[in-house]
Structures are given as structure tokens and as C-alpha cells.
Amino acid sequence: DLSSNLISRIAPGAFHGLTALRRLDLSNNRIGCFSADMFLDLGRLSKLNLSGNIFSTLPEGLFTHVPSLKTLHVGTDYLFCDCQLRWLLSWIRSQAMRVGNESVCVYPTRLHGLELRSLQENQLTCDGPLELPVLQLIPTQRQLVFRGDRLPLQCTASYLDPSVRLSWSHEHRPIHTLEDRGLYVEDSIIHDCCLITSELILSNIDAGVSGNWQCHVTSSRGNSSIGMEIVVLETTALYCAAERVSSNKGDFRWPKTLAGFMAFLPCAVSSSSSAPQEKRAWRRCDRAGRWAEDDYNQCSYANQLTRSLHELTQMSVNVSSGLALAQQLSSLTSRAALFGDMMDVIFVTHLVERLTRLVDHVRELSDHVLDVASNMMAVEEHILWMAQNEARACTRMVQCVERIADLALNANTTGISKVSANIALEALVLRPAALMGLLCTVVQRPPLLPPVADVGHSGSGSDRNSLLNFRCHTVNVSGSPMGQLNQISFDLLLKQKCGFDGLKLLKVLIISAALSGRPAVSSGALMSRSDFSPQSH
């Protein structure tokens, strides 16, 4: 099973020696073309799955080396059912091949959605108008430029067969490299056997550049084109200066833009799809020539961790999916020391809240919520502060940890005790008549082996080795009767000298439900930031 591995190329003879292989799954990768030599030595292969890749056609004779093949899956978002697939349809029928239901035509439009196996050979023709799965020109809209500016144009099209060529024109006149005029046409580049790209660079722009520019696609099947307009402005016009903006959505180089207009840029982070990036960010230049509002919402986060956490927030969280999502979140937050964006913390908080709502249905979730909250203590403190100021993320996280005790005790559990690297949680059920007082103690002893001395590192290594213990016990003390303790919350700040000031927060929440016949509930939660070497308390 080699599915979903971002494979883009398979070398000839890659499966050499695997003569006993019966099933091969290459689905959901980024393979744009196949050759018969890829499947050498697979004479016993009976099932092959190529679906979900980025090819649009398959070459004749592809399956020469897999004579035992009985089941084939070739569904893609770009499958082009034309004369080049006649051989495949004929071969499928001669071999009594079972073809997956997802193997349907996407192009041309007249065959869209039809199953490949249901077609007749006379339907697979190449005489219709040229349809391209991908034909894109960047920039896509009219460009306002100034004298002396430089502007690159990039044209990308589907590489349906070797006859596909790209060329350029300006006001219907063919364009080639002319260095004296600042025109440079780069050689076309073929990507993954399925896309062809050509770049035209306009340097030291003058008034003669104004007008319509077009990229032309020619092939044995027909021709197509795409264009845009360039307007050259005088330097006296008001404009917003070119500016580079770096954010958690990537690095954007905004061009000089005329006052009162909007600038668009493709998202900096490439998408997982095979097509060129279609999502865009925009920024408006106001009439005074100052950059005003912007919008990066269509763009993915640049950091892989942030992107993964954001993707999790888009998933449905319910009783059936909650446990798997919690395990995935626990794994991601094990690297919380690497979090560098407040959105990481906010996304985790959002997910923890959703998981906490399911704890009364899926009891195992409570341990994962506690682990995630414990992992988050390794996040740099200034990141936590930003997340707190932006969305009260830390407060909401603590509330979820405290809520775990309430949910567990409401299920008629007499007590729970949970300890993780940075958080200890103790909850017990007491009857008001039997309680005169409550004493909670916390001990954090140094590890048996001294941690690596690196006070500048705020990872969780020392946390994992420290021994954290938190216990609450009933005691006989004088003072206010328990019935008066309706809801008492207090914070104890412990501060000591350890070469530099360290700070720990002990939060104990005591709740009494002194109603007739109802037990009192007591819960405590300790959250410890080990930004200094642990000491005994």
C-alpha cells in the first residue's frame, strides 16, 4: 500500500524482484504519467489502483508487464476520454477487466461523468474543440504598471500530449526574446508529465508595452488562448509603494499599485491539488496612495503545524470521531514547544472545548484532554499571552480541565486522580455533614537524573522527568461551616529564587453543593510552568 504518500514519479523497474506481489495501491499521490517499465516483474499482480493521481491519459501498452491483472482503478479529476484511450477501452473488454466505479470521464464536457467502461469506442474521438483541464495566466487581471517597472507573466496549461506548445503575442503580433526591448521568453518547462509552463518577462517597461497580451496553446487536437491587459502609467500618478509583507499565511510581495485600485497575489503556500494555485490574497490601495484593508483568508497557513491544527478545526467532531481526533491532537501538541503562532494555541483551545463536550459520552477523552492541556504548557510564554489576549485561550483551556472533574463526578464516580507532565487533577465526592475542612498539597520533586542545563529552552523535557503530586484530604479545622462554602476559588502564587525568578501557579477550585441529599463536590487542578529547575514545595 503506497497510497497517499505524495509520490510524483516512479522509476522504471522500481518494483524489481517483487514477483509475488498481488495488489498494488498507488492511489492519491501526485503521479502525472506512467510507463510500462514501471511495472516490470509484476507478472502476478491482480489488482492495481491508480486513482486520485494527476494524470489525464494513459499510454498504450501500459499494462504489458501485468498479464494477471483483473481489477483496475483509474479515476482522477483530470481523466480525458478521447482517442488516446481507445486502446484502454478495447483492452479492458478483451481482458474482462473489472474497472472501479470511480473511473469516470471528466473531459471532454460531452462525456463528463460517464463511466469509462460504459463507453463505446466511437465516442472516444479527438475531433471536438480543444478542452484543457488547466489553462491559467498569472497575473490573471489587468495590470497597472509604471515606466521602468518589471513584470513577469506565467502561462500554464495541461500537457495532454507531446504536441502541446505554448507561445506569446502582443496585440496579435508574435513575441520572441528581444533583449534590446527588454522582452525575454523562457523555455517551456514540463511538470510531472501533466503541466507545461512558459514565462515571459517584461523588463524596463515603456509605453509600448500597453495593450493585450496573450498566451497561446497549440496542439494536434486544436488551439486555445488566454489573455490579459497591461496599462502603463505615468510616474506622477498617486500609488502605493511596493511592499513585502510576512505573516502566518506566508511571504507576499505586493507590487506598486495605483491609488484607488486593488492588488491580487496568489497564495504563498501551494495547495495539495495539482492545478496551479487558484486562491488569492488581496490588498487595497486607497485614493491617497496608502495601503488600506487586506484579506488573506483564502490562503493556507505557512507553517505545517498551524496548517494541520487548522485542518482539524474544520473536521466534524462527534462521538464516533472524537477519540481519533483527540489522539491526533495529543500527538500534534507533543511538539507544542515548537508552536510559534498564537493561532496554534487558539486552534488547540477550540478543539479541546469541542472534545470536552463529548467527555460524558466518551470517558476516554478526559485523559486526552488532560494530556493536550499538559502539552500546551511547553508553549513559549509570550505566545500564550498573545493567545490569551486575542481569544482568552488559556482561560478557556483551564476551564476545560476543571470541567473534566465535574463531568466525571456527575457520572457517580467517587473520585478521580489524574497526573501528567505539567498538570495534576484531583477530584472527590464528600458529604457536607462529614466535612469540616479540606487540605490540598502539591509536591514537585526534582527528577532522579538531573535535566540538561539549558534554561533558554522551554521544552517539556524536564517536565516529563519531574515528579508531580497533588492530593486533597479532609481535615478537622475550626472556621466557617461547610454549608457556607457555596463556591470558593483562590489562587496561590508560589515564587522562589532559583538563580532567577521562577513562577508557578496553583489553582484550587472548591465547589460545595450543600443541597439536601446531594454530596458536595471538591475538585482541584494544578497547572505548573517549569520554566526553572523543579524544587520541592
From TrEMBL:
Q: Which named protein is this?
A: Adhesion G protein-coupled receptor A2
Q: Which InterPro entries match?
A: Adhesion_GPCR_A, GAIN_ADGRA2/3, GPCR_2_extracell_dom_sf, GPCR_2_extracellular_dom, Ig-like_dom, Ig-like_dom_sf, Ig-like_fold, Leu-rich_rpt
Superkingdom of this protein's organism: Eukaryota
The protein's matches in Gene3D superfamilies, at most eight in alphabetical order, are given as: GPCR, family 2, extracellular hormone receptor domain (4.10.1240.10), Immunoglobulins (2.60.40.10), Ribonuclease Inhibitor (3.80.10.10)
List UniProt keywords, sorted A-Z. Answer: Disulfide bond, Leucine-rich repeat, Receptor, Repeat, Signal
The entry sums up its family as follows: Belongs to the G-protein coupled receptor 2 family. Adhesion G-protein coupled receptor (ADGR) subfamily.
For the Ig-like domain, which residue ranges apply?
Answer: 133-231
Q: Where is the G-protein coupled receptors family 2 profile domain?
A: 214-303
Pfam families per record: GAIN_ADGRA3, LRR_8
